[in-house]
Amino acid sequence: MQDVADLAGVSLATVSFVINAKTSAKVSEATRARVWSAAQELGYRTNRAAKNLVQGASTFIGLVADAIASTPFAGQIIRGAQDAAWQNRHILLVANTEANGEAEQDAITMMLEHQVTGIIYSTWYHREVTPPAALREVPCVLVNCYAADDSLPAVVPDEVQGGRTATQVLLDRGHRRIAFVNSTESAPATTGRLRGYRAALAAAGVAEDPDLVLTVRPEQEGGYEAGLLLLGLPTPPTAVFCYNDRVAMGMYDALHERGMRIPGDIAIVGFDNQEVIAGHLRPPLSTIALPHYELGARGVRMLLGGDGSAPAPGRTIVDCPYIPRHSL
Fold first, then answer.
1. pTM, 2 dp
2. Shared domain check, 186 and 75
3. How far apart are CA 251 and CA 77, in angstroms?
4. What are the mean pLDDT values of the chain's consecutive 10-residue runs (328 residues total)?
């Protein structure tokens, strides 16, 4: 700053007033222009670290993730958070811990040392977590996960709405024998999507057939096995709602092996909108998207708020949109 002052022919105090945009100081426009010209010529940059020490805060937002940076479709959480941070003139510091507890603790400590504005704590699949105690030292928002006691603010997908929407689009096409191939995993997605499936059937006055609700490993092999079981029923379904797109891929394999047409003989809806699968099956898979981008963006917006107050505890639910393609 002294170099800028010498080149511009003004005092150090005048440079400080101009660089820090202090409107209370009486500095002419000509002088301001001279200071900025000198700063540009010298390549001057504000010492952000020093400002952080003085102000007790920074324009950094921390994002601690267990694996989403290396998970293709869940990586949209980072993109949404990054875009929202940038729109609010903040920078995202991302730490991908691969679910290593020691790495997670080190990442949070580093972010606190950088005096981050707050921390986004995220998981690659929707689940309950025990948040690290250090998160409570700064404003924090959980993304794609939640605390059991809801003591921290969280942004999570609406699994029930997603399951209901998947079933409803099949009902709207006239299907009444609709199977649901669920997962063996213990997760909010398993219980929530089943609740949505049952709610849609009940609202349409369609009785649930227990033979049409299967539980399998949430992988391609599980979908293939489920497909063979459903085709072996005395009255097979005319439509199937699959727990995720990988299960739907296995369902395609079973149906194609038996010479069944999709959607001519059986319509299929998946869940996740994992583009590498859903967009490249033949026919392309109609599915429900997990709103990863919006989860990340909403988390940052909640963290920054509008009035400077800390975000309120409890869960914020984000809709899972329907992505129509050609499998129904």
1. 0.82
2. no
3. 28
4. 90 84 79 89 70 62 86 85 94 90 91 91 94 91 96 97 98 98 96 98 98 97 98 97 98 97 98 92 97 96 76 93 97
